[in-house]
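In this section we walk through a basic example: taking a raw amino acid sequence and producing a predicted 3D structure, encoded as discrete structure tokens. The instruction is simple. Fold the sequence below.
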Amino acid sequence: RNFFTKRTKELKPAVQSAPGWKLFGKVPPRENLPKDSKIIQQEYEARTGRMYKPPPPSARRKNIEFEPLSTTALILEDRPANLPAKSLEEALRHRQEYDEMVAEAKKREIKEAHKRKRIMRERFKQEENIASAMVIWVNEILPNWEGMRATRRVRELWWQGLPPSVRGKVWSLAVGNELNITPELYEIFLSRAKERWKSFSETSSENDIEDAGASVADREASLELIKLDISRTFPSLYIFQKGGPYHDLLHSVLGAYTCYRPDVGYVQGMSFIAAVLILNLEEADAFIAFANLLNKPCQLAFFRVDHSMMLKYFAAFEVFFEENLPKLFLHFKSYSLTPDIYLIDWIFTLYSKSLPLDLACRVWDVFCRDGEEFLFRTGLGILRLYEDILLQMDFIHIAQFLTKLPEDITSEKLFGCIAAVQMQNSNKKWAQVFASLMKDNKEGDKNHSPALKS
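The resulting token sequence is shown next.
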């Protein structure tokens, strides 16, 4: 401390008396006021004998709407005095390049403005259509559901997408309740699930949690998988994450189902189906629709991992794949790329994980109308939409592309491609083709049975 104090005292008078210093020489003391830029310019002209001459008016830029920045400025500005001046030809070329840039920018701006207007018009028209459709559904169709659901008018209106306000109600009616589940039954299975979670967290006693012949390890793994999968369900929405408004609700529906159907348990992909239902229905209604939906033949085959049935569905899909997209079918065959590589994920989650949520809901709308056939028709629609791109890809890139579809896929384009898909082969519809595959399989089993051989 003493050292720095002495140095400060010694240097003080020197600093006061000495003029200021700059990097390349002395300048006037700091006390002097800074000179005006005009005075500095005059002193420079007096010392060097050079006079600053502003460029003639003709050389100045005229009628420029905005000050050019960065590259544009370099195009228009004259070079510094110490560099060779631009030739007339170069100056004209730069001017032309600049004018082209400005014109292109204006063109882009006009195009973007037109695009915004078009989107707003389409949105306004869509809102009007939804509002008018909602009135028809509420006042005419829903009160007379059984009599009107199969009419041509209702089917056409259904194809265009259900209004969000009636979507849940229509889904419930279309899926039905063959299992005769009541809200009270849901509460019973939910209380069982809560008891099981409690017993796992506290004692993990085998006697308390054994049920329906299922092993404790399997049941515990199933419940743990639910917790893990809930956090992965629509992560961008955040509403199903821990602390979100629908986290506990989704956990309850999935937990209750594992108690209701211990033979199926929880399978990855179920969380997305339950989440979509929760977004459109009340808790008990969502569980009823969920249980009945998973009891349909196609969903039951996939969620119980019935390999024989799954292979029949894949075989039926390939029949219509070859019929509708022969070139892409052969391309996939050349790489031995089978439907299970991409279809399993689509079917397990009913496209709710693969497509944007609003588009997935519209797929669900028609799926509830047409049944399992529409799931495979949607798959063919996706392949048709991206056929040209897929034909240029190899095995790895096709698998990656179909596993994670582009996010900019639109409802109009996809449903246009789905509408173009013909679900008919040799005058046989989907149900007939699938039935014939099942029949062939049964006959094959009989022919190969040991009893017949003996």
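Looking at the output, two observations stand out. Residues 167-201+218-295 form a domain with the Helicase, Ruva Protein; domain 3 fold (CATH 1.10.8.270). Confidence is low (pLDDT under 50) at residues 5-26, 58-68, 205-214, 448-454. In the next section we compare this with other chains.
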